[in-house]
Amino acid sequence: MSSVTPDEIWKAVLGEMELSLSRANFTTWFKNTNVISRDQNSVTVSVPNGFVKEWLESKYSRQILSSIRKLSNEIREVKYIVGQPKPEPLRQDISKIIIEKEFQEQAIVDRSQEVDKMTHLNKKYSFDSFIVGSSNEFAFACAKAVAASPGKNYNPLFIYGGVGLGKTHLIQSIGNSLLEQWPDKRVFYTTGEKLTGAYVEAVQNRTVEDLKSQYSRLDLLVIDDIQFIQGKQKTQEFVFAIFNEMHNHNKQLVFSSDRVPKAIPTLEDRLQSRLEGGMLAEINMPDFETRLAILKSKSVERACPLTDEVLSYIATHIQKNVRELEGALNRVVALAQIYNRTPDTKEVKNILNAYLSVPYRKTSPQVILKTVADFFNIPAADLTKRSRKKEVVKPRQIAMYLLREEIKLSFPDIGQKLGGRDHSTVIHACEKIKREEAVDEPLKNELTMIRQRIYDSFEQ
Ligand code: ADP
Ligand code: MG
Predict the structure, then answer these.
(1) From atom 19 of ligand 1, which residue's Cα is the shortest distance away?
(2) Which end of the chain has the lower number of beta carbons within 10 A, N or C?
(3) Best CA proximity match to 312, nearest among 326, 296, 333
């Protein structure tokens, strides 16, 4: 069948690939590709850049070869060469392509980060890769101290702070560091949620005692997101029992939570006081310099050098949490790979614009009201009632302030949403909270946590 022209061969390949891939994927990898020559046993495909070349070679070469062989079965090999510079994809395509690309990147990263079967730790988390700044240096120092002499000084260590600020990273690093120094130590990482699941299963199987003794034999038990056990009385009793057993034998316990123990509603008093009995360390959102240092370190890790200007742009504009900072960086790295060069600030701005505007597009007054009410553990309806009770007045003022700050609702609108209050009341509340936020550390922390939760709800 050597009468088939290179062009026809490639059209057939494209036809097949288009059917088996998503549109964005197909466009990313096959746009501006061509068969430029063929000989007896091979076909040479020109591709726009080295990145596409690598990708086609590693991911799609088998599929491409097999569809070529349907037309021309003497072909044994497909070669890829970087040909004419690729005209850049149209702007409206880019964000779609990037999103696909980010998913692929994430999938690659996820696969390479398998969790250890015994300890449930993920090796990717280490003290070395944790960037330290004023927002986390105390927590970091405590974590290092615990890893250096477990069960001695800070027991338990309780690390708290908003979502995506590095709690999991830090507490997993303790486990990894401990095992590096003493490979025989028994270390286990779990989350409040998984622990609850394990406990419920053990109850069903009547193996609670076994489970308890398994945990109690550990040298280090790390429980992430312990706030999950709020309201789960039996699980709390179980944690309390393990806690005492381990603590009595000078075995180390490490916890993380999105807030301090006393702010976890329905946490049994005795467990709360145990959790508070060691060292409490907070992690906050890193300042600009630390954000920049994190970006630098991650871009080096990803082997994707970006200019300082681009990195500063990202560090300036992404202020929510470190996870989002990484997300933004992933997106820019994807862009760099698609262009096969370092993007400039203007391009980065374009690509992050969509990212940055997400909160404004997706949040709603309902989300804010519900988040505030949940945070203070009061029914959302109380915010709109006439009540002047202290437990309600402050959450209500905070809700007003956030409706103003986060979604720029007008004062009369806010008044209306909160049970028909006068707009001067709203102005008064907003100014009061704003003023206090600047000087009142606990209030500032509460607002940060509430904002984190509002932002988190966008991601779902
Ligand atoms: P949390 O558990 O507080 O929600 P994570 O530990 O999952 O947050 O952190 C989110 C992401 O940000 C992770 O990929 C983590 O490695 C990264 N990260 C957070 N803080 C830092 C830091 N100080 N240095 C380097 N990476 C960080
Ligand atoms: Mg976490």
Answers:
(1) 166
(2) C
(3) 296
Q: What's the mean pLDDT in 265-291?
A: 92
Cα–chain center distance at 239: 27
The CB density around residue 398, as the number of other CB atoms within 10 Å, is 24
pLDDT at residue number 102:
63
Lookup result for tokens 């390479």: 112
| Atom 5 of ligand 1: nearest residue by CA position | 166
Work out the number of other CB atoms within 10 angstroms of the CB of residue 153: 14
In this structure, are residues 321 and 285 in contact, taking their beta carbons and an 8 Å threshold?
A: yes
**Pairing state between β 187-191 and 220-224:** parallel
Instruction: Verify whether ligand 1 is closer than 6 Å to residue 455 (CB atom).
Output: no
How many other C-beta atoms lie within 10 A of the C-beta of residue 114?
10
Rounded to the nearest angstrom, the distance between the alpha carbon of 64 and the centre of ligand 1 is 39
Instruction: Please give the single-letter amino acid code of residue 194.
Output: K
What percent of the residues of the chain are helix, what percent strand, and what percent coil, each to the nearest 5? 60, 10, 30
360 three-state secondary structure:
helix
169 alpha carbon – ligand 1 mean position (Å): 5
Which residue, judged by its Cα, is nearest atom 25 of ligand 1? 130
pLDDT digits (tens, 9 = 90+) for 301-346: 888 888 989 999 999 888 888 988 998 998 898 888 877 888 888 8
- Check residue 440 and report its DSSP letter: -
Question: Residue 48 corresponds to which tokens in the numbers above?
Answer: 């726009």
292 exposure class (CB count in 10 Å sphere: 0-12, 13-18, 19+): buried
Dihedral angle of Cα 290, 291, 292, 293, to the nearest 10 degrees: 50
Token pair 């088939």 in the structure block, residue: 4
